[in-house]
Design goal:
The complex is a heterodimer of chains A (366) and B (179). With 366 residues, chain A is an alpha/beta fold. In chain A, the strands form three sheets. In chain A, strands 2, 3, 4, 5, 6, 7, 8 and 13 form an eight-stranded mixed sheet that branches. Chain A has two domains: 182 residues, 3-Layer(aba) Sandwich (Rossmann fold); 104 residues, Rossmann fold. Chain B has 179 residues and is an alpha/beta fold. Chain B has a single domain, classed as Pyruvate-ferredoxin oxidoreductase, PFOR, domain III (Pyruvate-ferredoxin Oxidoreductase, domain 3, 3-Layer(aba) Sandwich). Chain B contains six helices and six strands, in the order E-H-E-E-E-H-E-E-H-H-H-H. Chain B is globular. Chain B starts with a strand and ends with a helix. Classes of the chains: A alpha/beta (366), B alpha/beta (179). Chains A and B meet through strand 1, helix 7, strand 9 and helix 10 of A and helix 1 and strand 2 of B.
Protein backbone atom coordinates (compact mmCIF):
# COMPACT_ATOMS: atom_id res chain seq x y z
CA UNK A 1 0.00 0.00 0.00
CA UNK A 2 1.10 3.55 -0.66
CA UNK A 3 -0.15 7.00 0.20
CA UNK A 4 0.16 10.06 -2.00
CA UNK A 5 2.06 13.12 -0.82
CA UNK A 6 3.22 16.40 -2.36
CA UNK A 7 6.73 16.69 -1.02
CA UNK A 8 9.93 18.56 -1.67
CA UNK A 9 12.83 16.35 -2.78
CA UNK A 10 14.87 17.06 0.34
CA UNK A 11 11.92 16.12 2.56
CA UNK A 12 11.46 12.90 0.60
CA UNK A 13 15.14 12.13 1.23
CA UNK A 14 14.74 12.64 4.98
CA UNK A 15 11.53 10.59 5.03
CA UNK A 16 13.27 7.84 3.06
CA UNK A 17 16.05 7.83 5.65
CA UNK A 18 13.53 7.53 8.47
CA UNK A 19 11.74 4.69 6.67
CA UNK A 20 15.09 2.96 6.14
CA UNK A 21 15.67 2.99 9.88
CA UNK A 22 18.20 5.82 10.15
CA UNK A 23 18.97 6.33 13.83
CA UNK A 24 21.71 8.96 13.66
CA UNK A 25 22.11 12.19 11.73
CA UNK A 26 25.19 14.35 12.14
CA UNK A 27 25.44 17.39 9.94
CA UNK A 28 25.97 21.06 9.35
CA UNK A 29 23.35 23.03 7.42
CA UNK A 30 24.24 24.27 3.96
CA UNK A 31 22.16 25.42 1.00
CA UNK A 32 20.64 23.67 -0.89
CA UNK A 33 20.63 20.64 1.42
CA UNK A 34 19.45 22.28 4.64
CA UNK A 35 15.87 20.95 4.50
CA UNK A 36 17.18 17.40 4.90
CA UNK A 37 18.87 18.30 8.21
CA UNK A 38 15.94 20.46 9.29
CA UNK A 39 13.45 17.65 8.76
CA UNK A 40 15.66 15.10 10.49
CA UNK A 41 16.13 17.47 13.44
CA UNK A 42 12.35 17.70 13.79
CA UNK A 43 11.59 14.00 13.30
CA UNK A 44 14.52 11.84 14.34
CA UNK A 45 14.63 12.52 18.13
CA UNK A 46 10.88 11.79 18.37
CA UNK A 47 11.57 8.33 16.99
CA UNK A 48 14.32 7.63 19.49
CA UNK A 49 17.12 8.59 17.14
CA UNK A 50 19.84 11.19 17.58
CA UNK A 51 20.36 14.43 15.68
CA UNK A 52 23.58 16.35 16.21
CA UNK A 53 24.45 19.61 14.55
CA UNK A 54 28.24 19.49 14.49
CA UNK A 55 30.72 22.36 14.29
CA UNK A 56 31.48 21.74 10.62
CA UNK A 57 31.32 19.10 7.93
CA UNK A 58 34.44 17.10 8.77
CA UNK A 59 33.13 16.88 12.33
CA UNK A 60 29.79 15.77 10.91
CA UNK A 61 31.19 12.86 8.96
CA UNK A 62 33.39 11.94 11.94
CA UNK A 63 30.28 11.79 14.13
CA UNK A 64 28.51 9.67 11.51
CA UNK A 65 31.42 7.22 11.39
CA UNK A 66 31.52 6.98 15.19
CA UNK A 67 27.76 6.48 15.39
CA UNK A 68 27.90 3.77 12.75
CA UNK A 69 30.51 1.89 14.80
CA UNK A 70 28.01 1.72 17.65
CA UNK A 71 25.65 -0.03 15.23
CA UNK A 72 23.59 3.04 14.24
CA UNK A 73 22.30 3.51 10.72
CA UNK A 74 23.94 6.86 10.22
CA UNK A 75 23.84 9.63 7.65
CA UNK A 76 24.75 13.21 6.86
CA UNK A 77 23.71 15.67 4.18
CA UNK A 78 25.62 18.52 2.65
CA UNK A 79 26.52 20.38 -0.53
CA UNK A 80 29.67 21.46 -2.42
CA UNK A 81 31.90 23.24 0.12
CA UNK A 82 30.77 20.94 2.93
CA UNK A 83 31.36 17.92 0.72
CA UNK A 84 34.94 19.07 0.13
CA UNK A 85 35.48 19.35 3.88
CA UNK A 86 34.30 15.77 4.36
CA UNK A 87 36.80 14.20 1.99
CA UNK A 88 39.45 13.19 4.53
CA UNK A 89 37.01 11.25 6.67
CA UNK A 90 35.26 9.72 3.66
CA UNK A 91 38.56 7.97 3.02
CA UNK A 92 38.60 6.94 6.68
CA UNK A 93 35.09 5.48 6.28
CA UNK A 94 36.21 3.56 3.19
CA UNK A 95 39.37 2.25 4.91
CA UNK A 96 37.55 1.25 8.10
CA UNK A 97 34.60 -0.17 6.11
CA UNK A 98 32.06 1.94 7.94
CA UNK A 99 28.48 1.82 6.62
CA UNK A 100 27.21 5.38 6.16
CA UNK A 101 25.06 7.45 3.84
CA UNK A 102 26.24 10.82 2.55
CA UNK A 103 23.70 13.01 0.79
CA UNK A 104 25.08 15.69 -1.51
CA UNK A 105 22.54 18.12 -2.94
CA UNK A 106 24.91 19.46 -5.56
CA UNK A 107 25.22 23.17 -6.29
CA UNK A 108 27.43 25.16 -8.62
CA UNK A 109 31.14 25.14 -7.84
CA UNK A 110 34.06 25.43 -7.51
CA UNK A 111 34.31 26.90 -4.03
CA UNK A 112 31.16 28.56 -2.69
CA UNK A 113 30.09 29.05 -6.33
CA UNK A 114 26.31 29.13 -6.73
CA UNK A 115 24.64 28.14 -3.45
CA UNK A 116 21.09 28.16 -4.84
CA UNK A 117 21.67 26.70 -8.29
CA UNK A 118 21.88 23.10 -9.50
CA UNK A 119 25.00 21.31 -10.71
CA UNK A 120 26.47 17.85 -10.91
CA UNK A 121 30.07 18.93 -10.62
CA UNK A 122 30.93 16.61 -7.73
CA UNK A 123 30.46 13.31 -9.57
CA UNK A 124 34.20 12.68 -9.85
CA UNK A 125 34.87 14.08 -6.39
CA UNK A 126 32.55 11.52 -4.82
CA UNK A 127 34.43 8.77 -6.63
CA UNK A 128 37.99 9.99 -6.17
CA UNK A 129 37.89 12.89 -3.71
CA UNK A 130 39.76 11.29 -0.85
CA UNK A 131 43.35 10.21 -1.28
CA UNK A 132 44.37 6.68 -2.17
CA UNK A 133 42.56 3.94 -4.07
CA UNK A 134 39.10 2.89 -2.92
CA UNK A 135 35.60 2.38 -4.27
CA UNK A 136 32.25 3.79 -3.31
CA UNK A 137 28.64 3.59 -4.43
CA UNK A 138 26.82 6.65 -5.81
CA UNK A 139 23.12 6.91 -6.66
CA UNK A 140 21.52 9.73 -8.65
CA UNK A 141 17.81 10.51 -8.21
CA UNK A 142 15.82 12.26 -10.97
CA UNK A 143 12.55 12.80 -9.08
CA UNK A 144 11.12 13.36 -5.63
CA UNK A 145 10.01 9.71 -5.71
CA UNK A 146 13.61 8.63 -6.22
CA UNK A 147 14.89 10.97 -3.51
CA UNK A 148 12.92 8.67 -1.22
CA UNK A 149 13.58 5.32 -2.89
CA UNK A 150 17.29 5.81 -3.51
CA UNK A 151 17.88 7.05 0.05
CA UNK A 152 16.41 3.77 1.28
CA UNK A 153 18.58 1.91 -1.19
CA UNK A 154 21.66 3.88 -0.10
CA UNK A 155 21.21 2.69 3.48
CA UNK A 156 20.77 -0.91 2.42
CA UNK A 157 23.80 -0.90 0.13
CA UNK A 158 25.98 0.77 2.75
CA UNK A 159 25.01 -1.86 5.32
CA UNK A 160 25.50 -4.72 2.93
CA UNK A 161 28.87 -3.67 1.49
CA UNK A 162 30.16 -1.70 4.50
CA UNK A 163 31.02 1.25 2.33
CA UNK A 164 30.08 4.95 2.18
CA UNK A 165 27.12 5.33 -0.17
CA UNK A 166 26.44 8.71 -1.76
CA UNK A 167 23.08 10.09 -2.77
CA UNK A 168 24.29 12.49 -5.46
CA UNK A 169 21.26 14.70 -6.04
CA UNK A 170 21.14 18.30 -7.23
CA UNK A 171 19.37 21.51 -6.28
CA UNK A 172 16.60 20.97 -8.85
CA UNK A 173 15.57 17.55 -7.58
CA UNK A 174 16.25 18.57 -3.97
CA UNK A 175 14.09 21.67 -4.02
CA UNK A 176 11.23 20.87 -6.35
CA UNK A 177 7.98 19.57 -4.98
CA UNK A 178 6.04 16.89 -6.76
CA UNK A 179 3.74 13.97 -6.31
CA UNK A 180 5.21 10.99 -4.52
CA UNK A 181 3.69 7.63 -3.65
CA UNK A 182 5.04 6.72 -0.23
CA UNK A 183 5.07 3.01 0.60
CA UNK A 184 3.85 1.77 4.00
CA UNK A 185 7.12 -0.06 4.54
CA UNK A 186 10.45 -0.52 2.78
CA UNK A 187 12.96 -3.33 2.41
CA UNK A 188 15.65 -3.22 5.06
CA UNK A 189 19.08 -4.84 4.87
CA UNK A 190 21.17 -4.93 8.03
CA UNK A 191 24.92 -5.36 8.30
CA UNK A 192 25.97 -8.91 9.12
CA UNK A 193 27.36 -9.11 12.67
CA UNK A 194 30.84 -10.52 13.21
CA UNK A 195 30.75 -14.19 14.11
CA UNK A 196 32.36 -15.00 17.44
CA UNK A 197 35.82 -16.44 16.96
CA UNK A 198 36.35 -14.63 13.64
CA UNK A 199 38.94 -11.89 13.26
CA UNK A 200 37.23 -8.50 12.80
CA UNK A 201 38.65 -7.69 9.36
CA UNK A 202 38.62 -11.22 8.00
CA UNK A 203 36.35 -10.95 4.98
CA UNK A 204 35.88 -14.47 3.68
CA UNK A 205 34.43 -15.09 0.22
CA UNK A 206 32.02 -12.15 0.13
CA UNK A 207 34.82 -9.64 0.62
CA UNK A 208 32.75 -7.95 3.34
CA UNK A 209 33.74 -8.74 6.94
CA UNK A 210 31.13 -9.23 9.69
CA UNK A 211 30.56 -6.11 11.77
CA UNK A 212 31.75 -5.99 15.40
CA UNK A 213 29.62 -3.14 16.77
CA UNK A 214 31.01 -1.26 19.77
CA UNK A 215 29.37 -2.25 23.04
CA UNK A 216 28.54 -5.78 21.92
CA UNK A 217 31.49 -7.44 23.61
CA UNK A 218 34.06 -7.28 20.84
CA UNK A 219 37.49 -5.78 21.43
CA UNK A 220 38.25 -4.08 18.13
CA UNK A 221 40.87 -1.63 16.99
CA UNK A 222 39.58 0.62 14.18
CA UNK A 223 42.28 2.50 12.31
CA UNK A 224 42.82 4.36 9.07
CA UNK A 225 46.28 2.86 8.91
CA UNK A 226 46.72 -0.21 6.78
CA UNK A 227 45.65 -3.02 9.08
CA UNK A 228 45.67 -6.79 9.22
CA UNK A 229 42.66 -9.03 9.84
CA UNK A 230 42.91 -8.30 13.54
CA UNK A 231 42.57 -4.59 12.84
CA UNK A 232 46.11 -3.92 14.03
CA UNK A 233 48.21 -1.36 12.13
CA UNK A 234 50.68 -2.97 9.76
CA UNK A 235 51.68 -0.20 7.44
CA UNK A 236 54.94 -1.45 5.95
CA UNK A 237 53.99 -4.75 4.35
CA UNK A 238 53.53 -4.20 0.60
CA UNK A 239 51.61 -7.47 0.30
CA UNK A 240 49.19 -6.74 3.12
CA UNK A 241 48.49 -3.23 1.87
CA UNK A 242 47.87 -4.43 -1.67
CA UNK A 243 45.55 -7.20 -0.49
CA UNK A 244 43.58 -4.84 1.72
CA UNK A 245 43.12 -2.10 -0.86
CA UNK A 246 42.24 -4.59 -3.58
CA UNK A 247 39.61 -6.12 -1.33
CA UNK A 248 38.13 -2.68 -0.52
CA UNK A 249 37.89 -1.96 -4.24
CA UNK A 250 36.76 -5.41 -5.38
CA UNK A 251 33.97 -5.86 -2.87
CA UNK A 252 32.26 -2.97 -4.67
CA UNK A 253 33.55 -3.27 -8.24
CA UNK A 254 32.91 -7.04 -8.49
CA UNK A 255 29.29 -6.38 -7.50
CA UNK A 256 28.79 -3.59 -10.05
CA UNK A 257 26.21 -5.49 -12.10
CA UNK A 258 24.23 -6.33 -9.04
CA UNK A 259 24.41 -2.73 -7.75
CA UNK A 260 23.54 -1.33 -11.20
CA UNK A 261 20.15 0.37 -11.24
CA UNK A 262 18.96 1.92 -14.49
CA UNK A 263 16.15 2.38 -16.99
CA UNK A 264 16.34 1.68 -20.70
CA UNK A 265 14.05 3.13 -23.36
CA UNK A 266 14.26 2.19 -27.05
CA UNK A 267 17.27 -0.17 -26.95
CA UNK A 268 17.33 -0.48 -30.77
CA UNK A 269 17.86 3.24 -31.32
CA UNK A 270 20.85 4.61 -33.21
CA UNK A 271 21.13 7.74 -31.11
CA UNK A 272 21.10 7.13 -27.38
CA UNK A 273 21.03 9.66 -24.56
CA UNK A 274 22.77 8.62 -21.35
CA UNK A 275 21.69 10.66 -18.34
CA UNK A 276 21.55 10.73 -14.56
CA UNK A 277 19.93 13.16 -12.13
CA UNK A 278 17.79 16.10 -13.25
CA UNK A 279 18.81 16.12 -16.95
CA UNK A 280 17.05 12.74 -17.23
CA UNK A 281 13.80 14.71 -17.04
CA UNK A 282 14.76 16.77 -20.09
CA UNK A 283 15.64 13.61 -22.01
CA UNK A 284 12.34 12.02 -20.96
CA UNK A 285 10.51 15.03 -22.40
CA UNK A 286 12.43 14.81 -25.69
CA UNK A 287 11.58 11.12 -26.15
CA UNK A 288 7.97 11.79 -25.29
CA UNK A 289 7.77 14.67 -27.77
CA UNK A 290 9.47 12.74 -30.59
CA UNK A 291 7.15 9.79 -30.03
CA UNK A 292 9.24 7.34 -32.07
CA UNK A 293 11.83 4.64 -31.42
CA UNK A 294 14.73 6.30 -33.19
CA UNK A 295 16.17 7.84 -30.06
CA UNK A 296 17.05 5.78 -27.00
CA UNK A 297 17.69 6.59 -23.38
CA UNK A 298 19.82 4.96 -20.73
CA UNK A 299 19.02 6.55 -17.41
CA UNK A 300 21.53 5.70 -14.71
CA UNK A 301 20.33 5.61 -11.11
CA UNK A 302 23.65 4.05 -10.11
CA UNK A 303 26.65 5.97 -11.41
CA UNK A 304 29.36 4.42 -9.19
CA UNK A 305 30.46 1.68 -9.51
CA UNK A 306 30.04 2.57 -13.17
CA UNK A 307 27.78 -0.10 -14.74
CA UNK A 308 29.62 -0.27 -18.04
CA UNK A 309 28.04 -3.59 -19.06
CA UNK A 310 24.73 -1.83 -19.67
CA UNK A 311 26.26 0.18 -22.50
CA UNK A 312 26.18 -3.03 -24.54
CA UNK A 313 22.38 -3.14 -24.33
CA UNK A 314 22.22 -0.71 -27.25
CA UNK A 315 23.56 -2.89 -30.08
CA UNK A 316 22.61 -0.47 -32.87
CA UNK A 317 23.86 2.69 -31.20
CA UNK A 318 25.85 4.92 -33.55
CA UNK A 319 26.18 7.79 -31.11
CA UNK A 320 25.80 8.39 -27.39
CA UNK A 321 24.73 11.85 -26.17
CA UNK A 322 25.44 12.75 -22.56
CA UNK A 323 23.73 15.82 -21.08
CA UNK A 324 25.34 16.70 -17.74
CA UNK A 325 25.30 19.60 -15.31
CA UNK A 326 29.11 19.63 -15.43
CA UNK A 327 31.83 19.71 -18.10
CA UNK A 328 31.52 16.08 -19.13
CA UNK A 329 32.56 14.12 -16.05
CA UNK A 330 30.57 10.96 -16.81
CA UNK A 331 30.75 11.37 -20.60
CA UNK A 332 34.48 10.72 -20.33
CA UNK A 333 33.78 7.64 -18.23
CA UNK A 334 31.46 6.37 -20.98
CA UNK A 335 34.11 7.05 -23.64
CA UNK A 336 36.36 4.57 -21.88
CA UNK A 337 33.96 1.74 -22.63
CA UNK A 338 32.40 2.36 -26.04
CA UNK A 339 33.71 2.55 -29.60
CA UNK A 340 30.96 4.89 -30.81
CA UNK A 341 31.35 8.66 -30.61
CA UNK A 342 30.23 10.20 -27.32
CA UNK A 343 28.75 13.68 -27.66
CA UNK A 344 29.23 15.71 -24.51
CA UNK A 345 26.37 18.08 -23.71
CA UNK A 346 27.68 20.00 -20.72
CA UNK A 347 25.67 22.74 -19.07
CA UNK A 348 26.82 25.04 -16.30
CA UNK A 349 25.08 27.85 -14.47
CA UNK A 350 22.20 26.07 -12.80
CA UNK A 351 19.56 25.75 -15.53
CA UNK A 352 18.44 22.39 -16.80
CA UNK A 353 18.98 21.45 -20.45
CA UNK A 354 15.77 22.42 -22.25
CA UNK A 355 14.10 19.79 -24.45
CA UNK A 356 14.75 22.11 -27.42
CA UNK A 357 18.50 22.14 -26.71
CA UNK A 358 18.59 18.36 -26.57
CA UNK A 359 16.52 18.01 -29.77
CA UNK A 360 18.98 20.33 -31.50
CA UNK A 361 21.84 18.11 -30.29
CA UNK A 362 20.31 15.16 -32.15
CA UNK A 363 21.02 17.05 -35.39
CA UNK A 364 19.89 15.73 -38.78
CA UNK A 365 19.93 12.06 -37.79
CA UNK A 366 16.55 12.13 -36.06
CA UNK B 1 -4.92 19.01 -19.77
CA UNK B 2 -1.63 20.64 -18.88
CA UNK B 3 -1.41 24.03 -17.24
CA UNK B 4 1.66 26.02 -16.35
CA UNK B 5 1.02 28.62 -13.68
CA UNK B 6 3.51 31.31 -12.76
CA UNK B 7 3.21 33.34 -9.56
CA UNK B 8 5.19 36.51 -8.94
CA UNK B 9 5.19 39.25 -6.35
CA UNK B 10 7.56 40.43 -3.66
CA UNK B 11 9.19 38.36 -0.93
CA UNK B 12 6.87 38.15 2.08
CA UNK B 13 3.57 38.00 0.18
CA UNK B 14 3.49 34.22 0.22
CA UNK B 15 4.21 33.75 -3.47
CA UNK B 16 6.00 30.46 -2.93
CA UNK B 17 3.39 29.20 -0.48
CA UNK B 18 0.69 30.03 -3.04
CA UNK B 19 2.36 27.78 -5.59
CA UNK B 20 2.85 25.01 -3.00
CA UNK B 21 -0.83 25.18 -2.04
CA UNK B 22 -1.94 25.01 -5.67
CA UNK B 23 0.30 22.02 -6.38
CA UNK B 24 -0.87 20.33 -3.21
CA UNK B 25 -4.53 20.81 -4.17
CA UNK B 26 -3.91 19.25 -7.59
CA UNK B 27 -2.00 16.23 -6.26
CA UNK B 28 -3.69 15.49 -2.95
CA UNK B 29 -7.30 16.33 -3.69
CA UNK B 30 -7.76 16.34 -7.48
CA UNK B 31 -5.66 13.21 -8.11
CA UNK B 32 -3.48 14.97 -10.69
CA UNK B 33 0.24 15.39 -11.12
CA UNK B 34 2.01 18.62 -10.22
CA UNK B 35 5.53 19.96 -9.95
CA UNK B 36 6.32 23.14 -8.07
CA UNK B 37 9.58 25.00 -8.54
CA UNK B 38 10.79 28.42 -7.56
CA UNK B 39 13.46 30.96 -8.18
CA UNK B 40 15.47 30.21 -5.10
CA UNK B 41 17.68 33.20 -4.50
CA UNK B 42 18.69 35.57 -1.73
CA UNK B 43 15.49 37.63 -2.21
CA UNK B 44 14.09 38.31 1.24
CA UNK B 45 11.15 40.57 1.95
CA UNK B 46 10.75 43.16 -0.76
CA UNK B 47 12.60 41.59 -3.72
CA UNK B 48 10.83 40.04 -6.71
CA UNK B 49 9.84 36.48 -5.94
CA UNK B 50 8.71 33.84 -8.46
CA UNK B 51 7.31 30.37 -8.15
CA UNK B 52 5.71 28.09 -10.69
CA UNK B 53 3.48 25.05 -10.83
CA UNK B 54 2.84 22.61 -13.63
CA UNK B 55 -0.42 20.67 -13.34
CA UNK B 56 -1.14 17.74 -15.63
CA UNK B 57 -3.33 14.64 -15.82
CA UNK B 58 -0.21 12.66 -16.79
CA UNK B 59 3.18 12.38 -15.09
CA UNK B 60 5.30 15.47 -15.67
CA UNK B 61 8.63 14.95 -17.39
CA UNK B 62 10.46 18.28 -17.83
CA UNK B 63 9.84 19.91 -14.45
CA UNK B 64 10.42 23.58 -15.23
CA UNK B 65 7.74 25.90 -16.54
CA UNK B 66 8.46 26.75 -20.21
CA UNK B 67 5.30 28.40 -21.55
CA UNK B 68 3.12 29.57 -18.68
CA UNK B 69 -0.54 29.92 -19.69
CA UNK B 70 -1.70 31.35 -16.36
CA UNK B 71 -0.03 34.25 -14.51
CA UNK B 72 -0.73 35.43 -10.98
CA UNK B 73 1.06 38.75 -10.48
CA UNK B 74 1.08 40.58 -7.16
CA UNK B 75 3.64 43.38 -7.55
CA UNK B 76 4.75 45.88 -10.17
CA UNK B 77 8.33 44.58 -10.13
CA UNK B 78 6.96 41.03 -10.41
CA UNK B 79 4.97 42.12 -13.47
CA UNK B 80 8.00 43.70 -15.10
CA UNK B 81 10.28 40.76 -14.40
CA UNK B 82 7.96 37.77 -14.79
CA UNK B 83 4.65 38.97 -16.29
CA UNK B 84 5.29 41.51 -19.02
CA UNK B 85 6.27 38.84 -21.55
CA UNK B 86 3.03 36.87 -21.15
CA UNK B 87 1.85 35.53 -24.53
CA UNK B 88 -1.48 36.69 -26.01
CA UNK B 89 -3.04 33.31 -25.33
CA UNK B 90 -2.35 33.50 -21.58
CA UNK B 91 -4.62 34.73 -18.84
CA UNK B 92 -3.31 36.93 -16.05
CA UNK B 93 -4.74 37.61 -12.63
CA UNK B 94 -3.21 40.74 -11.23
CA UNK B 95 -3.46 42.38 -7.85
CA UNK B 96 -4.81 45.72 -9.02
CA UNK B 97 -3.91 47.34 -5.71
CA UNK B 98 -0.20 46.93 -6.45
CA UNK B 99 0.23 46.31 -10.19
CA UNK B 100 -0.18 49.38 -12.38
CA UNK B 101 0.76 47.94 -15.77
CA UNK B 102 -1.57 45.82 -17.87
CA UNK B 103 -0.54 42.93 -20.15
CA UNK B 104 -1.46 42.35 -23.79
CA UNK B 105 -3.17 39.08 -22.87
CA UNK B 106 -6.56 38.62 -21.23
CA UNK B 107 -6.40 39.76 -17.62
CA UNK B 108 -8.55 39.93 -14.53
CA UNK B 109 -8.09 42.73 -12.03
CA UNK B 110 -8.31 41.49 -8.45
CA UNK B 111 -7.91 44.16 -5.75
CA UNK B 112 -6.52 41.48 -3.46
CA UNK B 113 -4.33 43.53 -1.14
CA UNK B 114 -7.04 46.18 -0.65
CA UNK B 115 -9.69 43.55 0.01
CA UNK B 116 -7.42 41.66 2.40
CA UNK B 117 -6.68 44.83 4.34
CA UNK B 118 -10.11 46.51 4.29
CA UNK B 119 -12.62 43.66 4.13
CA UNK B 120 -10.68 40.94 5.93
CA UNK B 121 -8.53 43.09 8.21
CA UNK B 122 -5.19 41.38 7.43
CA UNK B 123 -3.18 42.12 4.28
CA UNK B 124 -1.25 38.88 4.87
CA UNK B 125 -4.09 36.89 3.26
CA UNK B 126 -3.90 38.81 -0.05
CA UNK B 127 -2.27 35.77 -1.65
CA UNK B 128 -5.18 33.57 -0.58
CA UNK B 129 -7.61 36.06 -2.14
CA UNK B 130 -5.56 35.75 -5.34
CA UNK B 131 -5.69 31.96 -5.15
CA UNK B 132 -9.47 32.13 -4.81
CA UNK B 133 -9.67 34.37 -7.85
CA UNK B 134 -7.29 32.10 -9.77
CA UNK B 135 -9.36 28.99 -9.10
CA UNK B 136 -12.68 30.70 -9.82
CA UNK B 137 -11.38 32.15 -13.10
CA UNK B 138 -9.43 29.19 -14.47
CA UNK B 139 -10.81 26.05 -12.71
CA UNK B 140 -7.23 24.78 -12.74
CA UNK B 141 -8.09 22.84 -9.57
CA UNK B 142 -11.44 22.26 -7.85
CA UNK B 143 -12.83 24.64 -5.22
CA UNK B 144 -12.98 21.93 -2.56
CA UNK B 145 -9.45 20.80 -3.41
CA UNK B 146 -8.01 24.30 -3.01
CA UNK B 147 -9.86 24.86 0.26
CA UNK B 148 -8.52 21.63 1.73
CA UNK B 149 -4.98 22.39 0.55
CA UNK B 150 -5.16 25.84 2.16
CA UNK B 151 -6.37 24.39 5.44
CA UNK B 152 -3.47 21.91 5.37
CA UNK B 153 -0.96 24.70 4.88
CA UNK B 154 -1.92 27.66 7.07
CA UNK B 155 -1.09 28.11 10.76
CA UNK B 156 -3.58 26.83 13.33
CA UNK B 157 -6.02 29.52 14.41
CA UNK B 158 -6.07 31.22 11.00
CA UNK B 159 -8.34 28.73 9.24
CA UNK B 160 -11.48 30.90 9.35
CA UNK B 161 -9.62 33.98 8.10
CA UNK B 162 -8.04 32.05 5.24
CA UNK B 163 -11.31 30.39 4.24
CA UNK B 164 -12.95 33.82 4.18
CA UNK B 165 -10.10 35.17 2.04
CA UNK B 166 -10.50 32.28 -0.40
CA UNK B 167 -14.27 32.83 -0.69
CA UNK B 168 -13.67 36.56 -1.20
CA UNK B 169 -11.40 35.65 -4.11
CA UNK B 170 -14.17 33.49 -5.61
CA UNK B 171 -16.67 36.38 -5.23
CA UNK B 172 -14.41 39.01 -6.77
CA UNK B 173 -14.15 36.99 -9.98
CA UNK B 174 -17.90 36.33 -10.01
CA UNK B 175 -18.47 40.11 -9.71
CA UNK B 176 -15.91 40.85 -12.40
CA UNK B 177 -17.71 38.45 -14.75
CA UNK B 178 -21.17 39.84 -14.14
CA UNK B 179 -20.02 43.44 -13.74
Amino acid sequence: MTRTEFWQGNIACAEGALAAGCTFFGGYPITPSTEVAEHMAAKLPKRGGTFVQMEDEIGSIAAVIGASWTGARAMTSTSGPGFSLMMENIGFAAMTETPCVIVNIQRGGPSTGQPTMAAAGDMMQCRFGSHGDYSVIALCPASVQEMYELTVKAFNLSERFRVPVFLMADEIVGHMRERIDVPDSVERVDRVPLEKGTLPFSAGKTGVPGFPAFGKGYGVHVTGLTHDERGYPCATSPKLHEELVLRLVRKVEDARHEIADYEIVNPDAEQVFISYGAPARSVGQVLHDLGNENVGHLRLKTVWPFPEGILRKFPDAKEFLVPELNLGQIAREIERYVDQPVKQLPKLGGDLHTPAELKAALGGLK
Amino acid sequence: MRHEVRFSGFGGQGIILSAVILGRAAVMYDGKYAVQTQVYGPEARGGASMSAVIIDDDPILFPKVMNPDIFVIMSQEGFEKYGSGAPESAVMLLDSTLVHSRPSCRYIEVPATREAKETLGRDIVANIVMIGALVAATKVVGETAIERAILDSVPKGTEALNTKALKRGFELVAQEKTG
